[in-house]
From TrEMBL:
GO terms for cellular component: bacterial-type flagellum basal body. It is found in: Bacterial flagellum basal body. The keyword Iron-sulfur does not apply. This is Flagellar hook-basal body complex protein FliE. InterPro entries: FliE. Keywords: Bacterial flagellum, Cell projection, Cilium, Flagellum. The keyword Chaperone does not apply. Belongs to the FliE family. One of its GO terms (molecular function) is cytoskeletal motor activity. One of its GO terms (biological process) is bacterial-type flagellum-dependent cell motility. It comes from Cognatishimia maritima. Its main location: other.
């Protein structure tokens, strides 16, 4: 593995980290909240939004079956559900992989 210290100085890295801590997440911008959001809160919000996207897609699909929604709406809702599920699975896989890497670390 290459040594990244030769690429960037520690001061530049610490400065970038300090600047990143002051950035607001999209949820904070939408809420207008100045309090920093924890990683767990961010995951909880993303999971709730994912569940809501799937529920809305399921509702539109049901409306399509009963003739209350058009084909275009059903296709759009289905595509939204599919992309939500794909992203959720990818995030879950990354979290599990990170957890496994941490558990493999020697103490």
């Amino acid at each position: 593995m290459s040594d990244f210290s030769s690429i960037r100085s520690n001061a530049a890295i610490q400065g970038a980290y300090g600047n990143a801590k002051s950035l607001k997440s999209p949820a904070q911008v939408a809420e207008g909240s100045d309090a920093p959001q924890s990683f767990g809160d961010m995951l909880r919000t993303a999971a709730a939004q994912s569940v809501e996207n799937v529920r809305q897609g399921d509702e539109v699909a049901t409306q399509g079956l009963t003739g209350k929604a058009g084909i275009q709406q059903v296709v759009e809702a289905t595509m939204t559900m599919e992309s939500t599920v794909r992203v959720s699975v990818a995030v879950r896989d990354k979290i599990v992989e990170a957890y496994q890497d941490i558990m493999r670390m020697p103490i």
